Amino acid sequence: MSSRHALLAPRRASGLTLMELLLVLAIIDVLMGIAIPKYNEYQERIKQAQAIEDIQVIQTLIKHYALDSGSYVGLAADYS
User: Fold this and answer.
1) What is the pLDDT of residues 48-73, one digit of tens each?
2) Distances (CA, A) of 56 to 33, 47, 53, 66, 69
């Protein structure tokens, strides 16, 4: 009887169904919708921090130039 029952029972394939795949894709979509804006904000903060650091380096260089030469860097219009 058990062999006959095994023949009549529907067999399930070992893969995923279409609904399961759609559910996984929907979950990934939601997670990406959360992660991508956070990543973009993080990149923007890195760019801002780098720009601030660059400005501070330029300020330090100008101060060192002024200490060495006795005057600050002039504008290009001053030399023409």
Assistant:
1) 999 999 999 999 998 998 888 887 77
2) 36, 14, 5, 15, 20
- Give 8's contacts (C-beta < 8 A, 6+ positions apart): none
Instruction: Match 């939601």 to its residue by tokens.
Output: 30
pTM of the model: 0.53
Buried b (16+ CB within 10 A) or exposed e, 24-62: eeeeeeeeeeeeeeeeeeeeeeeeeeeeeeeeeeeeeee
Amino acid at the residue 57 = V
